[in-house]
Amino acid sequence: MGKPKFSRKKYDTPSHPWQQDRITAENELTKKYGLKNKREIWKAKTKIRNYRGQARGLRARLSGNDAQSKKEIDQLLMHLNKMNILPPNSTLDDILGLQTENILSRRLQTIAYLKGLSSTPDQARQLIIHGHVAIDKKRVTIPGYIVSRDEEGEIGYTSDSPLNDIMHPARPHADFKSAPGKKDIKPKIPKEEIKEGLPLKVPIGTEKSIKIPEQKEEKKPEEQPKEDVKNNIDLKEIKEETTKPIEPEKEAPKKKDNKKPDENNKQGD
After folding, report:
1. Which of 94, 150, 182, 198 fits 90 for a cystine, CB–CB 3.0-4.6 Å?
2. Which three-class secondary structure state does DSSP give residue 139?
3. What residues does each domain of the chain span?
4. CATH code for 108-164?
5. Complete DSSP assignment for 49-60
6. Residue 12: CB partners within 8 Å, gap ≥ 6?
7. What is the pLDDT of residues 35-64, one digit of tens each?
């Protein structure tokens, strides 16, 4: 049993410390789920390993028609269904197909983020440690707590938390979506394929969701006949002439009559 003060280690470490594929996979999981260190990943892997070993042992005992083995299989499947790790009506083959993310997705930190209580997984961890998250009105300060199916709908802020105020700056906005579904993500079509004369490569299964843009024909300006162009030019010239200001006509200077008066007129006088 050991001493209660010095409890045994509840997880198994990797067999080799330097494996590039394993290290990159673990780094992605820590970033995705906002984990503190890789020890939490090793704990999840150990749980999955125990479930698989138990399923393999029960499968070997089924050949002898053991009533106790059937009872233990039902209890194991009921436990995994209660923790929402497996769906109802699952079998031993489903247990053998479990992955590490099936356990990490049931942590309180992950579910609090998915429910919109925080903007990021790291913020969800901080809120849980600081005592702002409760399950069924009971404060829980363990980010790695495995949430059951019944408890999932009772997660929220504690009654004395200031985050109950909608206007609190640390609370996510109403339009915030913590986990976008696959239906909301639309496939991107490269611009090179939308050119004229090139067929569009539509991904399989998205034929209905993608709308192929209609190519609009550009209207060319109608060419005017040559006669009309000439007429337009003549009209412009006429307009220019008509718009010129009319200058007033200058009066011609009067000519002086240098003719001598007739002699007959003189005589009459």
Report:
1. 94
2. strand
3. 20-104, 108-164
4. 3.10.290.10
5. HHHHHHHHHHHH
6. 42, 45, 46, 49
7. 999 999 999 999 999 999 999 999 988 877
